[in-house]
Amino acid sequence: MAEYMRLRQICLVAPHLEPVISDIAAIMGLSICYRDGNVAKYGLENALLPVDTILLEVVAPTKEGTAAGRFLDKTGNRGGYMAIFCCEDPDARGAKANAMGVRTANVITHVPYHGVQLHPRDCRAAFIEFNHTDGSDDVLGTYPPAGPDWQKHIRKDTTVALTEVEMQGPDPQALAEHWGRIVGVAVTRGADGPVLKLPNATFRFVKGPVDLMTGLTFRVADVAKVREAAKARGCKVDGDAFDLCGVTFRLAA
């Protein structure tokens, strides 16, 4: 099978699922496609919203002592939790990461889906997961973590696409190169720093005090309309950006 790497999903973590998931849906004009009962064994609840063919997930701890809860405590409820990529062979990709000293934290198999999650301490900034769904390399094909009919919930009247993920760290170039080696994408130079360009999204690395996933950029039909919706929901708005679920949502036409 030919090698490929696409952004499949971004996972954010919140202290409580509500009102965060309802705020995202209302502000961005998105529809919840699935709530996955399988995450309960990790002490979590979740909900997923498709942004075109990329899934935006929010998880929240339902009990003490969860990895997600520790992440919230460590970051002060700031920062994205996980970047999830679909590829041709998660095990091979994970083995390459292991050879770099990046440990495997968890392996999940729900046939036809198979995922390999890497240790966030070794990845730096966020969890990285590689996954593959047998028999469906179509971006609109079967993807069990998003439910049986996630495609029917795609809405593009307000939000058209998730185009960019912002990562920050004290040394953005080094963080970009580290992620680039794990993901298998060469670092290039963007307008304001190093970037990793995937077929369907770009990871942009900027200077910041600690390694974190700090922002998401969305292409929207009407920037002013979404900005006003964020204000109405009580979000802190700064220009064409607002804070929600521990990250900055940036809006672009």
- What is the 3D form? globular
How much of the sequence is in beta strands?
A: 35-45%
Low-pLDDT stretches are none
Largest sheet entry: 8 strands, mixed
What is the radius of gyration? 17 Å
Question: Count of helical segments?
Answer: 6
Order of helices and strands: EHEEHEHEEHEEHEEEEHEEE
Which key phrases capture this entry?
alpha+beta, 7-stranded mixed sheet, 6 helices
Chain-wise SSE layout:
Blueprint: E1 5-13, H1 20-28, E2 44-51, E3 54-61, H2 67-75, E4 82-87, H3 90-99, E5 104-110, E6 113-118, H4 120-123, E7 127-133, E8 159-169, H5 172-183, E9 187-190, E10 193-197, E11 202-207, E12 212-220, H6 223-232, E13 237-238, E14 241-244, E15 247-252
Parallel strand pairs: 1-3, 4-7, 8-11, 12-15
Antiparallel strand pairs: 1-4, 2-3, 5-6, 6-7, 8-12, 9-10, 10-11, 13-14, 14-15
Describe this structure in words.
The radius of gyration is 17 Å and the shape is globular. By secondary structure, the protein is an alpha+beta fold. A hairpin with a 4-residue loop joins strand 10 and strand 11 (202-207). The chain has helices at 20-28, 67-75, 90-99, 120-123, 172-183, 223-232; strands spanning 5-13, 44-51, 54-61, 82-87, 104-110, 113-118, 127-133, 159-169, 187-190, 193-197, 202-207, 212-220, 237-238, 241-244, 247-252. The chain contains 6 helices and 15 strands. The mean pLDDT is 96.
In short:
The chain is of the alpha+beta class and 253 residues long. 21% of the residues lie in helices and 39% in strands. Helix 1 runs antiparallel to helix 6 (223-232).
